[in-house]
Automatic annotation (TrEMBL):
Protein name: Solute carrier family 25 member 53
Organism: Pleuronectes platessa
Any one GO molecular-function label of the UniProt entry: actin monomer binding
GO biological process: actin filament organization
Gene3D superfamilies per the UniProt record, alphabetical: Mitochondrial carrier domain (1.50.40.10), Single helix bin (1.20.5.520)
Location in or out of the cell: Cytoplasm, Cytoskeleton; Mitochondrion inner membrane
Length: 224
């Protein structure tokens, strides 16, 4: 799926860039046109690939293995829901993430490549370095949105909305780091604990004890 997404993204960005009217250059600088085309390509990418990402996130979440173990069961569950709760759940965060990431990548790739290029750097190496740097910047910028999307789409159904506050609390609870528990531990008074004593007894049987035990074992069983 990543190959298809990359193909669609780069192909759409170049097509949108060539279709931008020349009159827009008087309003928007020429260096910003690739970012604008990347923004539009990211929106189209979100429309096309949101259902596939939805199914993937449901399948990858371990909490759904019991109820939704197969691809067919996931498709049946999502088909019985509305688009906003089913295949297109978390569409707005995905559209914002893809559009922002694409605009950052295509907007910075040209200037970074020109800054890296030089007599000491091969054109292929400069293209590789600029692509890696711009991808890193874009990934860091959209990482919170990616976490939000993964948590929203992992749920096969249920709540209509999922707030950032609830996601934050759920992540703490899953890791065993609930703020409420931490506060109780910090304010716990150890002086309230009752003192306890443990007496260790190392019992060593004597010779008389061993003989008495043998006599008890040698007694015949008396039937009542």
């Amino acid at each position: 799926m990543q190959t298809l997404k990359g193909t669609l993204l780069f192909g759409l960005q170049e097509a949108i860039l060539h279709q931008l009217p020349l009159s827009s250059q008087s309003v928007i600088s020429t260096s910003a046109l690739p970012a604008l085309a990347g923004f539009g390509a990211g929106l189209v990418e979100a429309v096309v690939f949101t259902p596939f990402e939805r199914v993937q996130n449901v399948l990858q979440d371990g909490r759904n293995y019991r109820d939704l173990p197969t691809l067919k069961s996931v498709l049946v569950r999502l088909r019985g829901q509305t688009l906003t709760l089913g295949y297109y759940r978390a569409f707005l965060p995905i559209a914002a993430r893809n559009a922002l990431g694409s605009s950052i990548y295509f907007g910075l790739k040209g200037p970074v490549c020109a800054a890296v290029a030089g007599e000491w750097c091969h054109p292929m190496a400069s293209s590789f370095v600029s692509g890696a740097l711009t991808s890193l910047v874009g990934s860091l910028a959209i990482y919170p949105l990616s976490v939000l999307v993964a948590n929203m789409q992992a749920q096969p159904g249920g709540e209509r909305t999922l707030s950032l506050r609830s996601l934050h609390q759920n992540s703490f609870n899953m890791e065993g780091k609930s703020p409420k528990v931490n506060a109780e531990v910090e304010h716990f008074d150890k002086c309230k604990l009752k003192p306890t004593t443990t007496n260790e007894k190392n019992f060593i049987p004597t010779k008389k004890d061993i003989e008495d035990e043998k006599r008890e074992n040698e007694k015949p069983n008396v039937k009542k």
